[in-house]
Amino acid sequence: MILTSAITEKLRLIEALIRTPTYTAVGYTHGRIVYVSTVEGATDLWSLDLKTNEKIKLSEGGIHSLAPVRSKSPLVVYTYDVSKGRELQQVFVNHVEGGKEFRIEKMGPRRVLGMGFDGETIALGAATEKAMELWRLTPSGEAEKLYETHALLFVTDYNDGRIVGQGIFKGDPRAFEIFMYDIKKAEFKVYTPKEGSVNKNPKVRGDLVLFTTTAFGDEKLLIYNIAKDELEEPKFTHDDYKKYKFTEYVDYDWTDDGRIWFIGKREGRTKVFIDGKEVPMPEGFSSSLVVVENKAYITHSTLTSPPRVYEVDLRTSERRVILGADLPPEVASRLGKRYFIKYRSPDGLEIPTYVVESQAAPKPGPTIVYVHGGPWAEVADYWSVLLASLVVSGYHVVAPNFRGSTGYGEEFRRLDIGDPGGGDLQDVVAAAKWAKEQGLASKVAIMGYSYGGFMTFLATVKAPDVWDAGVAGAGITDWEEMYKLSDAFFRQFMDILFDNKRELWKDRSAINFVENLKVPICIVHPQNDTRTPLRPVLRYVMKLLELGKTFELHVVPDVGHAIRRIDDVLKIVMPAVIFLDRYLK
Amino acid sequence: MILTSAITEKLRLIEALIRTPTYTAVGYTHGRIVYVSTVEGATDLWSLDLKTNEKIKLSEGGIHSLAPVRSKSPLVVYTYDVSKGRELQQVFVNHVEGGKEFRIEKMGPRRVLGMGFDGETIALGAATEKAMELWRLTPSGEAEKLYETHALLFVTDYNDGRIVGQGIFKGDPRAFEIFMYDIKKAEFKVYTPKEGSVNKNPKVRGDLVLFTTTAFGDEKLLIYNIAKDELEEPKFTHDDYKKYKFTEYVDYDWTDDGRIWFIGKREGRTKVFIDGKEVPMPEGFSSSLVVVENKAYITHSTLTSPPRVYEVDLRTSERRVILGADLPPEVASRLGKRYFIKYRSPDGLEIPTYVVESQAAPKPGPTIVYVHGGPWAEVADYWSVLLASLVVSGYHVVAPNFRGSTGYGEEFRRLDIGDPGGGDLQDVVAAAKWAKEQGLASKVAIMGYSYGGFMTFLATVKAPDVWDAGVAGAGITDWEEMYKLSDAFFRQFMDILFDNKRELWKDRSAINFVENLKVPICIVHPQNDTRTPLRPVLRYVMKLLELGKTFELHVVPDVGHAIRRIDDVLKIVMPAVIFLDRYLK
Questions:
Q1: End of a domain among A303, A325, A347?
Q2: What are phi and psi of B577, to 5 degrees?
Q3: Residue A3 has what pLDDT?
Q4: ipTM of this model?
């Protein structure tokens, strides 16, 4: 008597993985570390008293975004989605010691594009159906629209009377300029050290703007002095950082006492520096840093360990985990080797890639080419609950940083502009071939969420013989219909990605090639997704049905593109795992 | 620290329940009981050697239908769906001792409407897009179409040169007539003892046709003598059966030595008689009987115990289970009291109903009104894996036999003809009210598959305040589009159900009332369903999306209306359980 293996045993391990709480430190004020954790089932804000270890929950049900925490204010500023996932948000304020949240209602629900908090008032970018806006709000509930533009913009900081951020203001989709809005003068200024360069993530103190730029080659951290209209190199007491060559800067800012800290990244792993001195951390990825006098609170994860917060004594370099949870041993033991490789795409381009082997799969064994979202993002050596779920389910995972990914220089990032679903698709196809040639993969499925879902749809119709199955989460099947359904921000995004070549939309939309599909496809889509809307995917499904293709569809209710509740993550992951269990055996 | 309860723990119990094998005896030949079991993950045919207890598997991957087994032939005749669930079948033959199956290819794939086997050749009814047909096949592979008609028909037996069955031949949707096809004369004859009566399930031996009829009041078992053109009462040696009053006859036939056996039913429970003598069985439902000399092999189940096969010694009445599996204790212990009740619908009609309480729910607690399919079917005291899954998940279940259900007399059954989704919907709504008044239900969801899915769609838009959630499996949202997508058989079915009142279609289609929906709805639908097609359901989903209703959609790939694999049952049940866990708390 042969019993079919229990799928719910696999699901149980996945649930145990997904429910393992993550912890990310986001700031410090009034004796408390502010952090985000999934410990009660949604990505909520908490604070930890550094003296008593008391933890207080500040938000409920999952926040959407967060303003920087300022040590001079006991207030924490964040948003909730108030539209069942449609990403229309309102701003809330709570005291770091908890209490009743206050909702700022005078600004109606909007898609928020970055927030700043100077300790007294709040600044933010927002998109409506028609335009991008700058707003200033007070914690007591006042709200004022400061500025409106049709350019794509994103607020990254607000201090000393200036709102700063980045945007595409000169019409070049490959470039980003810095903007500075002077509240007193009601003056909006755009700055770039060099036309066509990428300038990002500005932080502002007084007249100084700390930002990264590609104006002089590789990404570089520089200071723009507004008063002097001059560029300066940041000054550091120590020179530990000089021995590394970073391709990107994950984050940086001034400490309260005026020292500059930064996290540098190369090939998906990071190093942390305060005033030029390295803060030793384990191999992997440090994603945030909070400095409190002689202590640093650093959030760290890898592809096989979830985010936890280390407290590092900056005098002794001793570190300990102050917020963190281990994976259950039966889960952790299924996560195998993780490593970084490069393979060549057909046109010779090297594709930097992370691989995680499953201890629950033979070699060669069933393998998944995991396609990240963005596309301007990457799979680095940090935690991805989706990727880890696949490994625990018994699949080796190959996660290519296809052309257009971040993390490998600006030239590499720009390679998909004007060609999404073109060269990058070839890179992803080559990942499957590489995995087979290496003796890693027996069968290969393609899977991704968002842009990764788009690539999954397209790869299964444009390279139908390469895959054994596909799982498309929150994907794109029809750019034309998506454009019609998008707000100003996402229309801008599309025009930038395609470099205004709208004639390419048709060729890069799987809906025009459905008849080529040969393998079973599992589609998982949030009901209220406003980035990658459901409607064109339902039309795709109608076509699959007409053509008698094998497909599975799961629409997840009351959620949007960004998933904040563990239960909803489960609703995305579990159907995929059940599907793969059947079609990738 | 509060941990959200693990949904996969609930799923694990459901999987354990669904994987508990079921056993149904279907015949005997050459020293072997032929039975159907899910023991290897699909509803396959097996045979059991009564001397050695050796079990042999005869089919693989799940059969679709089965001809009667004849003791004079060692062959077993059955069909597989060869269309990924679209219910186009081909006939296969295997030896009762196993070996290589033989496929009869000369009759192309068709929707099979009943099969007979006289021990030498096979007779069957089949529907194409256009018509209903009668066929005769030989185990060696020959196939001949005998007859074609536009009337709805169903073959129930074939012996001694005659194919018999039932159908609607006189245009009265409330009546069923018997047909007899004489192969030698190539003559098709329709018989009814009385115009307008319901005559069903004929079995034929020589000139005698054993069938049930409502020609003389309640359902009665009679014999029609073809040669004499006369009706006769069946004769029994014993008169145990006389003390019971049955509303319906589940099954009956002659034994090989010429005795008549039957299973009588009243209020969802049965009694078994051979030659008029009662074969004592536990309370519940005996669904099939195989007589082998002095032994009877009886399949028995209840709402809380899965089907098993008893061997009963007809001389001593001793019985023992020869094929069966117990539910795991942790599953069985969650199944509470089961009982039969009646409540009154608003128009005063009494609605016979089964209730199963959950030991994993408080009282009052979350409750599901489970709406059976058909509509000419019932929830009796027999095993329903869907219903049991809900009870194990922690819901009390109320399963009304709304007007139109079988089991309560022909008058009751006919009450939905010309009014589906009318009076029967009121009965279902009244079930929710009854459950609350009784102190059984706190919150109430409605759930059903097939006609039950139709009722769920309709109930949630026509009585939107009664429910807290709905789960519609393989349901109907739009009769008009469904008619267009149906084959001849299902078009006939619809015209009969609606009594040709096509003007009612609009009012009985949820798609025309979507805006009324107030509660979350979970939709589960097989991809290749040809009875209740997916397309109108996808159009319904488009409307839900436009109107911003909360919904969940799960399309199950490569399967049709009838589910034969345990893994696919899981794919239907698990999303429902996860959904209810969130919305019926």
A1: A325
A2: -65, -40
A3: 38
A4: 0.82
